[in-house]
Amino acid sequence: MRPKLFCKKSLALGSACCFLAFVRCFTFGFSLTSWTTNCRNPIANGQYRPHYMISLIEAKRGDCTRVGRIDLVARQGDALASKGARILSENPLVYTISNFLTEEECEAYQEYVKNLDDRNMTRSNPPAVSLDAARLWPLPLLSLFAGIPPVLHLMEEQQTLPLVDVIQVAVPNVALALAASGTLAYAVVLPLLRQIAKRSSRTSVAVALNTQADHSFIQTLVEKVGALTKHPWTNWEAPVVTRYDPGAIFSRHGDASPIRGEEWKDKGGQRVITCICYLNTLREGGETFFDCLNIAVKPEAGKALFFFPADGVTWIADDRTTHESKPPIDEEKWIVQMFGRAQRVPPPLGLADSFGSSDSKDELSV
């Protein structure tokens, strides 16, 4: 007797098994994370849009995904010590430097942005969300469970189970379960995450200082950051000034790409360094919180925070550096941030070649 290839009961059971496995994959063994490019640039609006990639990453409490040690403490120890750095974490390296900017410089950045005639601070564009397909590898394996119910049903009808018959009854359910999982991921989960990111991922406003007219103003900051990190200005995104109004947030995210910057090949590649300079002191709230490290950095005028979201050699993202901006309470939070990439960052995301010219260096800077 030939096996029944398409049993409604076995199909329903198989689909249910696959769906439950899919849900478990999201809720118990994995969690969602996001990263964003630093492209809140009204001048280049539409050319570089904020981009979030939602991927499945292993996330067990107290044991965030690890990468190889970035032994920057040993290589930069003397330089960091001379700058009065406070090491918050050695692996991964996270440190702060108080008075990295003077009080006058902090006030100057806020006033400079407020007085820009050609640009206004704008909220980040609705982020484009995508799924990292490489992180969906469990789904094909989980879909195999959908083939179990029809095989069990066949065992009730036949005493012997030829391999051909087993394959014939299992394959349709496995294929359907795999298709259903893919459809669920891209037709249900992805649009849902897009709506969530659009509504609540980030509620701050910002402006990029990336024009020729900005060069003289940002020169001191760019040179100071480059000298400390030994990372050339050509490989930095242009500084961005961001304002968080009371209650504004930037939810948990990572600054690096989970696929080693492959999608950023024409934008400088992977992000390997993050620098956040706080422009004002907050009495309450507004901390930069690293959830995996349980580190909270309180905003203080002039303080600079440095960390390394990806390995500078392998470009592998370090999931331990995921962080969020806590909402400020009853006052604004101002920062200026820069992101160092693995390669040359072309304008307008980065700075034009003219930034390195002698003419630019002769002009007055803050």
Beta percentage is 15-25%
CATH architecture name of the domain at 74-121 and 202-341:
Sandwich
Helix content: 25-40%
Strand order of the largest sheet: 4-5-14-11-16-9-8-6
Structural class from helices and strands? alpha+beta
CATH topology of the domain at 74-121 and 202-341: Jelly Rolls
Main sheet? 8 strands, antiparallel
Chain-averaged pLDDT: 77
Helix tally equals 8
- Which value, in Å, is the CA radius of gyration? 25 Å
Question: How would you describe the overall organization of this protein?
Answer:
This protein has about 375 residues and is an alpha+beta fold. Among the domains are: about 75-120 and about 200-340, q2cbj1_9rhob like domain (Jelly Rolls); about 135-200. It contains eight helices and 16 strands. Strands 4-5-14-11-16-9-8-6 form an eight-stranded antiparallel β-sheet, covered by helices on one side. Residues about 1-5, about 25-75 and about 360-365 have low confidence and may be disordered. InterPro entries: P4HA-like (IPR045054), Pro_4_hyd_alph (IPR006620), Pro_4_hyd_alph_FE2OG_OXY (IPR044862). Keywords: Dioxygenase, Iron, Membrane, Metal-binding, Oxidoreductase, Transmembrane, Transmembrane helix. It comes from Fistulifera solaris (Oleaginous diatom).
